[in-house]
Specification:
307 residues, single chain, 13 helices, Four Helix Bundle (Hemerythrin (Met), subunit A), 2 domains, five-stranded mixed sheet, 63% helix, elongated, alpha+beta
C-alpha cells in the first residue's frame, strides 16, 4: 500500500519537523546561489589563470562548502537518512570530485581537458536541478502542514483520502474515517484566552500524532476539528481504537500560565462500503460527530443510516 500512497508518505511520514523543513529550505536557497558563485570561480581560475579556493581544490571540498557543512555536521539524522537528501549529497560530492580532478590536471598542464570540463558542467547542471527540485518539494511539504499544530492540513488530507479510496476500491480493503471535535472549546478560549486555546490544540495534536499507527493520517480539518483516516481498518477495530483515544484525551492536562486545563472530545465514525464516495463517508462521519455532541459529548458514535 505504501508504494501506491506516495503523497501520504511524502507529506506525513518523512519525519521532518516544520523547523527542519524551514532550515532545509534556507540551506537549499543558499546552496543554489553559492554553487552558482562556485561555478563562476572555477571558470575564473581556468580562464584567467587565477588561484582556486579550497572549496574547489580540497579533497573534502564537498564537506567544507555551506551545503556540505550543514549536511554532515549540523543536519538531523532524519535529514541524513532521507533518500532525497542522500541522493542530492551524492551528486554534490561527485561534482566536487570531478572539479578537483579537472583543476589538478589543469595545474599540471595549464590546459583545460574538454572531456573533463564537460563532465564537471554536466555534474553542476545535475546538482542545480536537484537543488531546485528538492527546494520545490520542501515548499510543497511546507504548504501541506497546519502552521499551529504541525499536522497536515485539509487540502493535504483530501488528496490522501482520494488516493486511499481508489486503493481500497481496487484491492477491496476496508477503511474508516473519524471526525474529532474538542468539546466546549469556545469555553477554553473565553475562560483562559486564545493563546491557551492554541496550546490545547498543540497538546491534542501531539497526542494524536503519537496515538495512531504509522499508516494512519491525522489532519487538522478546521478550527478545533480533526479528521483521521484509518486505512485497512474495519468497523470494530476502528471503534476500539477511537474509544481508547477518546478516553485518553479526557486524561490529558494542559499547563498554561500556572493553570491546568482539561478537556474532552467527541468523535464520529464512518466506514467505507462499496459505492460510497469519499465525500459521502466524510459527511457520514460528520453526522455521527453531531450525534456524539447531541448525546452528551466525550464519546464515540458510529454512523447509522437514517440517523
Amino acid at each position: 500500500m505504501i508504494s501506491e500512497l506516495d503523497f501520504n508518505q511524502i507529506v506525513t511520514r518523512n519525519n521532518l519537523s516544520q523547523e527542519e523543513i524551514e532550515m532545509a529550505l534556507n540551506i537549499m536557497e543558499q546552496a543554489i546561489e553559492n554553487h552558482r558563485a562556485w561555478y563562476a570561480q572555477l571558470h575564473e581560475g581556468l580562464l584567467c589563470k587565477q588561484g582556486f579556493p579550497v572549496t574547489i581544490t580540497d579533497v573534502d571540498a564537498h564537506r567544507k562548502c555551506g551545503l556540505g557543512c550543514w549536511f554532515y555536521s549540523h543536519s538531523s539524522d532524519e535529514i541524513r537518512d532521507n533518500p532525497e537528501f542522500k541522493t542530492l549529497e551524492a551528486i554534490h560530492q561527485s561534482m566536487h570530485d570531478k572539479a578537483r580532478d579537472l583543476v589538478e590536471k589543469f595545474n599540471l598542464t595549464r590546459e583545460v581537458n574538454l572531456q573533463d570540463y564537460r563532465l564537471v558542467s554536466d555534474k553542476q547542471e545535475k546538482l542545480m536541478k536537484s537543488l531546485v527540485t528538492l527546494r520545490d518539494n520542501l515548499i510543497n511539504q511546507q504548504h501541506s502542514f497546519d502552521p499551529l499544530t504541525g499536522l497536515i492540513n485539509r487540502k493535504s488530507i483530501a488528496l490522501i483520502l482520494e488516493k486511499n479510496h481508489s486503493y481500497s476500491i481496487r484491492h477491496r480493503t476496508p477503511y474508516s474515517i473519524a471526525m474529532l471535535d474538542i468539546d466546549f472549546f469556545k469555553s477554553v478560549n473565553d475562560n483562559y484566552g486564545h493563546l491557551a486555546g492554541d496550546q490545547v490544540l498543540r497538546v491534542l495534536s501531539d497526542y494524536l500524532s503519537s496515538a495512531f499507527r504509522h499508516s494512519d493520517s491525522v489532519s487538522r480539518y478546521g478550527g478545533e476539528e480533526f479528521l483521521i483516516l484509518l486505512p485497512d481498518t474495519g468497523h470494530e477495530n476502528a471503534l476500539a481504537i477511537l474509544e481508547k483515544v477518546c478516553k485518553e484525551i479526557s486524561q490529558l492536562c494542559v499547563q498554561y500560565e500556572n493553570k491546568e486545563i482539561t478537556f474532552t472530545a467527541s468523535i464520529g465514525l464512518s466506514d467505507f462500503e462499496g459505492g460510497k464516495s469519499v465525500g459521502e463517508i466524510v459527511h457520514e462521519a460528520d453526522s455521527a460527530l453531531y450525534r456524539a455532541k447531541e448525546s452528551g459529548r466525550n464519546r464515540v458514535v458510529a454512523y447509522q443510516p437514517g440517523s
